[in-house]
Amino acid sequence: MRRLFLAAAALFATAAVAQPQPLKPPKLLVVISVDQFSANLFDEYRPQFTSGLARLASGTMFRNGYQSHAMTETCPGHSTILTGDHPARTGIVNNNWIDQSIARSDKSVYCAEDETVPGTSSIAYKVSPRHLLVPTLGELMKARWPGSRSVAVAGKDRAAVMMGGHNPDQRWYWTGAKYDTDLAGVAMPPVVAKVNALAAAGLASARGPLGTTPFCESRSREVAISGGGKPVGSGRLARDAGDQAAFRASPEFDGDTLALAAALVDAMQLGKRADPDLLTIGLSATDYVGHTYGTEGEEMCLQLTELDREIGDFLDVLDSRGIDYAVALTADHGGNDVPERERLAGVADAVRVDPALNIASMGKALVARLGLSGPGLLGDGSYGDIYLDRGLRASDRARLLQAAVAAYRAHPQVEAVFTASQIAATPVPTTPPESWSLIQRVRASYLAGRSGDFFVLLKRDVTPIANTTTHVATHGSLWDYDRRVPILFWRPGTSGTAVEHSVETTDIMPTLASMIGLPVQPGSVDGHCLAEVPGTHCVAR
Ligand SMILES: [Zn+2]
To answer: How much distance in Å is there from the Cα of 399 to the middle of ligand 1?
Structure first.
């Protein structure tokens, strides 16, 4: 009996030892957004990653993450990541929208500006989070733990604003010559000045071609571009001294942003206090590389190779400081390759948009046909939210809407047109995002008063760039190449799982909140806590 008891006790003890220790909440949450990092690119390059991205992919890897909404642009995408809400609730329906009620002559409103500041425009704007209608994770953390620090760093101001929210302690982004802040009373810490000096010195000198790898060399093939642009595909990202555009479209830019993030970890002593801290990092170079060279050439290969290494170096810094941290990485949207190379790869329908679909041209033609005056239609480019000129009488606006919807629907490159009343009558869906209908996707980035009077969808594989002299490829559609993004959670010392089912970028905020014990009532945000991530205590839906 006694022997049996001892044996049972020993078994019990073994079982007790084998139980994993409950994870303590991390002291620092690091949230990285890689601009235009599509799930297609992630899938394609995952076997090539050996450093930071390989470490993050070894955690809980959701390769079918979704920026579920239709307007897959930088500002709406970043607004979903740390609010837990779709753009319909964050209010960030696009990078720019039209507001014909504002006083200034420029009726375009930039998502991250305060257009009420006299003398500003949507180009020369005053940076502000005022259009973001909901709080971010950092705000909720600071409300619960007044000692929490929230720091936002990014290549683009809109990435820093939308992830950092309304009251970060620090907010730094590249303004064309240096990393700067709009926060009143925040002096430039010496570490920021140091990174700025290094970035300025780097930019001022020419850079030779980057070293390549056998894999990237195998991607090297020059492809001619229609629409006036230069050929792409076999560049190694060399640049002239002082070339700003080439600097942004290269891994140097992300390297400087990560150096700034690492410097601020030390300067702000992030992860070293009793209360948890948040650091958000917007890495913008992948987006500029995608726009400048497309996604399937040697240029993107070199960018992602360097990004992997740079993120690895950054994680090494966190490790060397002995910080207990957790990382979430995702993207604000995906992206698509240049149609010229897509056709070579067998995508027969890949084309550039018909210039006749340009909103200004379309408006002009319709106004002439209906005997009206003024621009008729307002909006950016050739698709998405389109606004009727409020200078027209209501009866003329109704005629114009009818004519515009018919004209767009008749065009062979147009998939569908929805009016604002049709969109508003559609509930925001709660089913898995891959099953959403087209109008449901549009609804998730629709807000009355900011969104257009109607919405035009281009067909799959229509690239909405006709003139390619500055950009050759882009994103912004509701097709899955623009919606599907990786979502990775990783914490040093934890083992991971690869999850196939779809999740959404709105799930990131409630998941991170759960990791640090910050209550988020189910249903109070669009997203859901992801129970697959170690250290979460998700409440059942
Ligand atoms: Zn972009």
So the answer is: 35
